[in-house]
Amino acid sequence: MIEKVGDILEGTVVRVYPNYAIMLFESGSTGLLHISEITDGYIRNFTSYVAVGNIYRVKVIEVDEEKQSMKVSVKQLTPEERKQATTHGEIPEEEISFKALEERLEGWIKEENKEERTKMIKLNLDNVKTQIDFDSYKEKIATIHEWIENKTGKGADYLGWADYPNTYDKEEFERIKAAARRIRENYEILVVCGIGGSYLGARAAIEAIKGLHPNDKLEIIYMGQTFSPSYVNQVLNHLKGKRFSINVISKSGTTTETSISFRLLKELMEKSMAKNTQKKLYSPPQIKKKALC
Fold this sequence. Notes:
Elements lengths: L7 E9 L3 E6 L4 E5 L11 H4 L5 E10 L4 E5 L5 H5 L21 H13 L20 H13 L9 H8 L2 H17 L2 E5 L3 H14 L8 E5 L5 H11 L4 E5 L7 H17 L21
Parallel strand pairs: 3-5, 6-7, 6-8
Antiparallel strand pairs: 1-2, 1-4, 2-3, 4-5
Protein backbone atom coordinates (compact mmCIF):
# COMPACT_ATOMS: atom_id res chain seq x y z
CA MET A 1 0.00 0.00 0.00
CA ILE A 2 1.22 3.51 -0.81
CA GLU A 3 -0.40 6.57 0.72
CA LYS A 4 -1.56 9.77 -1.01
CA VAL A 5 -0.11 13.26 -0.84
CA GLY A 6 -1.70 15.05 2.12
CA ASP A 7 -2.27 11.93 4.23
CA ILE A 8 -1.36 12.21 7.91
CA LEU A 9 0.60 9.24 9.25
CA GLU A 10 2.36 8.25 12.43
CA GLY A 11 5.55 6.29 12.01
CA THR A 12 8.81 5.23 13.58
CA VAL A 13 12.34 6.24 12.57
CA VAL A 14 14.22 3.08 11.59
CA ARG A 15 17.31 4.50 9.88
CA VAL A 16 19.15 7.81 10.36
CA TYR A 17 21.62 9.39 7.91
CA PRO A 18 23.44 12.77 8.07
CA ASN A 19 20.62 14.73 6.41
CA TYR A 20 17.57 12.48 6.41
CA ALA A 21 15.86 9.61 8.17
CA ILE A 22 13.84 6.60 6.98
CA MET A 23 10.47 6.06 8.67
CA LEU A 24 8.36 2.91 8.82
CA PHE A 25 4.56 3.10 9.05
CA GLU A 26 1.94 0.57 10.19
CA SER A 27 0.87 -0.14 6.60
CA GLY A 28 4.39 -1.32 5.78
CA SER A 29 5.13 1.80 3.75
CA THR A 30 8.37 3.69 4.20
CA GLY A 31 8.98 7.42 4.02
CA LEU A 32 11.96 9.72 3.79
CA LEU A 33 12.06 12.58 6.31
CA HIS A 34 14.60 15.19 5.21
CA ILE A 35 16.30 17.60 7.62
CA SER A 36 14.59 20.52 5.85
CA GLU A 37 11.15 19.07 6.67
CA ILE A 38 11.65 18.77 10.44
CA THR A 39 11.30 22.41 11.50
CA ASP A 40 11.60 25.98 10.23
CA GLY A 41 14.35 26.51 12.77
CA TYR A 42 18.02 25.57 12.50
CA ILE A 43 19.10 22.02 13.38
CA ARG A 44 22.78 21.92 14.28
CA ASN A 45 23.17 18.13 14.32
CA PHE A 46 20.49 16.07 12.59
CA THR A 47 21.70 12.70 13.87
CA SER A 48 21.47 13.83 17.49
CA TYR A 49 18.10 15.51 16.93
CA VAL A 50 16.47 12.51 15.23
CA ALA A 51 17.23 9.01 16.50
CA VAL A 52 16.16 5.46 15.68
CA GLY A 53 12.99 4.73 17.63
CA ASN A 54 11.57 8.28 17.54
CA ILE A 55 7.88 8.40 16.68
CA TYR A 56 6.59 11.26 14.54
CA ARG A 57 3.27 12.31 13.12
CA VAL A 58 3.97 13.47 9.56
CA LYS A 59 2.27 14.63 6.38
CA VAL A 60 2.90 12.95 3.03
CA ILE A 61 4.29 15.59 0.63
CA GLU A 62 5.50 13.48 -2.31
CA VAL A 63 4.73 9.97 -3.58
CA ASP A 64 6.66 7.81 -6.01
CA GLU A 65 4.32 4.96 -6.88
CA GLU A 66 6.86 3.26 -9.14
CA LYS A 67 9.38 2.95 -6.31
CA GLN A 68 6.65 2.50 -3.70
CA SER A 69 8.20 5.26 -1.62
CA MET A 70 7.29 8.70 -0.37
CA LYS A 71 8.65 11.83 1.27
CA VAL A 72 7.11 13.13 4.46
CA SER A 73 7.21 16.32 6.52
CA VAL A 74 6.74 17.32 10.13
CA LYS A 75 6.86 21.09 9.62
CA GLN A 76 4.06 21.10 7.03
CA LEU A 77 1.51 19.88 9.56
CA THR A 78 -1.13 22.48 10.41
CA PRO A 79 -1.33 23.71 14.03
CA GLU A 80 -4.39 21.50 14.57
CA GLU A 81 -2.62 18.44 13.16
CA ARG A 82 0.50 19.26 15.13
CA LYS A 83 -1.35 19.28 18.45
CA GLN A 84 -2.13 15.61 17.98
CA ALA A 85 1.48 14.74 17.19
CA THR A 86 3.39 12.25 19.31
CA THR A 87 6.91 13.53 18.70
CA HIS A 88 10.11 12.22 20.25
CA GLY A 89 8.50 9.12 21.69
CA GLU A 90 10.84 6.15 21.67
CA ILE A 91 10.63 2.46 20.87
CA PRO A 92 13.60 0.23 21.70
CA GLU A 93 15.59 -0.42 18.54
CA GLU A 94 15.49 -4.20 19.07
CA GLU A 95 11.67 -4.12 18.94
CA ILE A 96 11.54 -2.43 15.52
CA SER A 97 10.75 -4.80 12.68
CA PHE A 98 12.67 -4.16 9.45
CA LYS A 99 10.85 -6.81 7.45
CA ALA A 100 8.82 -4.27 5.46
CA LEU A 101 12.03 -2.49 4.44
CA GLU A 102 13.95 -5.45 3.09
CA GLU A 103 12.52 -5.44 -0.44
CA ARG A 104 13.02 -1.82 -1.43
CA LEU A 105 14.87 0.20 1.20
CA GLU A 106 18.40 -0.48 -0.04
CA GLY A 107 17.61 0.61 -3.61
CA TRP A 108 15.75 3.67 -2.40
CA ILE A 109 18.65 4.80 -0.22
CA LYS A 110 21.10 4.30 -3.10
CA GLU A 111 18.88 6.42 -5.34
CA GLU A 112 18.64 9.16 -2.73
CA ASN A 113 22.40 9.12 -2.16
CA LYS A 114 22.97 9.30 -5.91
CA GLU A 115 20.77 12.41 -6.07
CA GLU A 116 22.70 14.00 -3.20
CA ARG A 117 26.05 13.20 -4.82
CA THR A 118 25.09 14.98 -8.05
CA LYS A 119 24.88 18.19 -6.05
CA MET A 120 28.41 17.85 -4.71
CA ILE A 121 31.64 19.11 -6.24
CA LYS A 122 33.47 16.32 -8.03
CA LEU A 123 37.26 16.13 -8.07
CA ASN A 124 39.20 14.02 -10.56
CA LEU A 125 42.48 12.86 -9.02
CA ASP A 126 43.56 10.54 -11.86
CA ASN A 127 46.48 12.77 -12.84
CA VAL A 128 47.68 13.69 -9.36
CA LYS A 129 51.43 13.05 -9.10
CA THR A 130 51.48 12.72 -5.32
CA GLN A 131 48.88 10.35 -3.95
CA ILE A 132 46.99 11.62 -0.94
CA ASP A 133 45.51 9.39 1.74
CA PHE A 134 42.29 11.29 2.34
CA ASP A 135 41.09 8.75 4.88
CA SER A 136 43.94 9.82 7.18
CA TYR A 137 42.30 13.25 7.46
CA LYS A 138 38.91 11.97 8.60
CA GLU A 139 39.60 12.21 12.32
CA LYS A 140 41.17 15.66 12.03
CA ILE A 141 38.30 16.97 9.90
CA ALA A 142 35.77 15.56 12.37
CA THR A 143 37.55 17.40 15.19
CA ILE A 144 37.61 20.68 13.27
CA HIS A 145 33.95 20.24 12.40
CA GLU A 146 33.15 19.79 16.09
CA TRP A 147 35.13 22.96 16.94
CA ILE A 148 33.11 24.94 14.41
CA GLU A 149 29.76 23.44 15.39
CA ASN A 150 30.27 23.94 19.13
CA LYS A 151 32.49 27.04 18.85
CA THR A 152 35.10 25.54 21.16
CA GLY A 153 38.27 26.02 19.11
CA LYS A 154 40.62 28.95 18.78
CA GLY A 155 39.08 31.99 17.11
CA ALA A 156 35.55 30.89 18.05
CA ASP A 157 34.55 34.56 18.35
CA TYR A 158 34.97 34.82 14.56
CA LEU A 159 32.49 32.04 13.79
CA GLY A 160 29.36 34.16 13.56
CA TRP A 161 29.03 33.13 9.90
CA ALA A 162 28.36 29.51 10.92
CA ASP A 163 24.95 30.42 12.40
CA TYR A 164 24.28 33.48 10.26
CA PRO A 165 21.52 31.88 8.13
CA ASN A 166 19.56 31.63 11.35
CA THR A 167 20.78 34.67 13.32
CA TYR A 168 20.89 37.40 10.67
CA ASP A 169 19.17 40.72 11.35
CA LYS A 170 15.69 40.00 10.02
CA GLU A 171 14.52 43.61 10.42
CA GLU A 172 17.48 44.83 8.39
CA PHE A 173 16.73 42.20 5.76
CA GLU A 174 13.16 43.50 5.46
CA ARG A 175 14.52 47.04 5.00
CA ILE A 176 16.84 45.78 2.25
CA LYS A 177 13.95 44.08 0.46
CA ALA A 178 11.84 47.24 0.74
CA ALA A 179 14.69 49.29 -0.76
CA ALA A 180 15.08 46.75 -3.55
CA ARG A 181 11.37 47.03 -4.41
CA ARG A 182 11.61 50.83 -4.42
CA ILE A 183 14.63 50.76 -6.75
CA ARG A 184 12.97 48.31 -9.15
CA GLU A 185 9.82 50.42 -9.29
CA ASN A 186 11.55 53.76 -9.87
CA TYR A 187 14.87 53.24 -11.62
CA GLU A 188 16.30 51.72 -14.79
CA ILE A 189 19.80 51.04 -13.48
CA LEU A 190 21.40 50.21 -10.13
CA VAL A 191 25.08 51.14 -9.85
CA VAL A 192 26.94 49.08 -7.25
CA CYS A 193 29.89 51.25 -6.24
CA GLY A 194 32.65 49.42 -4.37
CA ILE A 195 35.91 47.54 -4.69
CA GLY A 196 37.11 44.05 -3.76
CA GLY A 197 34.72 42.08 -1.61
CA SER A 198 32.49 45.12 -1.27
CA TYR A 199 31.13 44.49 -4.73
CA LEU A 200 32.45 41.09 -5.84
CA GLY A 201 30.14 39.21 -3.47
CA ALA A 202 27.07 40.85 -4.96
CA ARG A 203 28.38 40.44 -8.50
CA ALA A 204 29.23 36.76 -8.02
CA ALA A 205 25.78 35.99 -6.62
CA ILE A 206 23.93 37.97 -9.30
CA GLU A 207 25.89 36.43 -12.18
CA ALA A 208 25.62 32.93 -10.71
CA ILE A 209 21.84 33.22 -10.52
CA LYS A 210 21.05 35.30 -13.61
CA GLY A 211 24.05 34.82 -15.88
CA LEU A 212 26.08 37.52 -17.62
CA HIS A 213 23.29 39.09 -19.71
CA PRO A 214 19.97 38.55 -17.95
CA ASN A 215 16.73 39.77 -19.48
CA ASP A 216 15.90 41.90 -16.47
CA LYS A 217 14.01 45.18 -16.31
CA LEU A 218 16.57 46.55 -13.84
CA GLU A 219 20.14 46.70 -15.14
CA ILE A 220 22.92 46.30 -12.57
CA ILE A 221 26.38 47.69 -13.35
CA TYR A 222 29.53 48.20 -11.30
CA MET A 223 31.83 51.13 -10.63
CA GLY A 224 34.37 52.16 -8.00
CA GLN A 225 36.72 49.22 -8.51
CA THR A 226 39.13 50.81 -10.98
CA PHE A 227 41.02 53.99 -11.92
CA SER A 228 40.61 53.20 -15.63
CA PRO A 229 39.44 56.46 -17.31
CA SER A 230 38.02 54.48 -20.24
CA TYR A 231 35.89 52.28 -17.98
CA VAL A 232 34.67 55.18 -15.85
CA ASN A 233 33.87 57.29 -18.92
CA GLN A 234 31.90 54.44 -20.53
CA VAL A 235 29.82 53.93 -17.39
CA LEU A 236 29.07 57.65 -17.01
CA ASN A 237 28.09 57.96 -20.70
CA HIS A 238 25.84 54.92 -20.34
CA LEU A 239 24.07 56.49 -17.35
CA LYS A 240 23.40 59.86 -18.99
CA GLY A 241 19.70 60.46 -19.52
CA LYS A 242 18.70 57.40 -17.49
CA ARG A 243 17.14 57.05 -14.04
CA PHE A 244 19.72 55.34 -11.85
CA SER A 245 20.22 54.54 -8.19
CA ILE A 246 23.57 54.15 -6.40
CA ASN A 247 24.52 51.56 -3.80
CA VAL A 248 27.85 52.65 -2.28
CA ILE A 249 29.71 49.98 -0.31
CA SER A 250 32.76 50.97 1.71
CA LYS A 251 33.60 50.00 5.26
CA SER A 252 35.88 52.97 5.90
CA GLY A 253 34.33 55.43 3.47
CA THR A 254 37.82 56.49 2.40
CA THR A 255 38.70 53.90 -0.27
CA THR A 256 40.15 56.00 -3.08
CA GLU A 257 38.64 54.25 -6.12
CA THR A 258 35.19 54.06 -4.55
CA SER A 259 35.30 57.63 -3.21
CA ILE A 260 36.23 59.11 -6.60
CA SER A 261 33.60 57.06 -8.44
CA PHE A 262 30.92 58.07 -5.96
CA ARG A 263 31.70 61.76 -6.40
CA LEU A 264 31.46 61.40 -10.18
CA LEU A 265 28.17 59.51 -9.91
CA LYS A 266 26.80 62.06 -7.45
CA GLU A 267 27.74 64.91 -9.76
CA LEU A 268 26.06 63.24 -12.73
CA MET A 269 22.95 62.50 -10.71
CA GLU A 270 22.65 66.09 -9.45
CA LYS A 271 23.06 67.49 -12.96
CA SER A 272 20.43 65.16 -14.39
CA MET A 273 17.81 65.87 -11.75
CA ALA A 274 15.50 68.83 -11.96
CA LYS A 275 16.20 71.38 -9.24
CA ASN A 276 12.73 71.09 -7.71
CA THR A 277 13.12 67.31 -7.22
CA GLN A 278 16.83 67.22 -6.44
CA LYS A 279 17.70 65.58 -3.15
CA LYS A 280 21.10 66.40 -1.74
CA LEU A 281 23.00 63.34 -0.58
CA TYR A 282 24.82 65.31 2.10
CA SER A 283 25.09 68.83 3.48
CA PRO A 284 28.57 70.34 3.24
CA PRO A 285 29.85 72.11 6.37
CA GLN A 286 28.97 75.79 6.53
CA ILE A 287 32.00 78.11 6.72
CA LYS A 288 31.48 81.61 8.04
CA LYS A 289 33.23 84.27 6.04
CA LYS A 290 35.30 86.73 8.02
CA ALA A 291 35.36 90.37 7.02
CA LEU A 292 38.73 91.53 5.84
CA CYS A 293 39.95 94.73 7.54
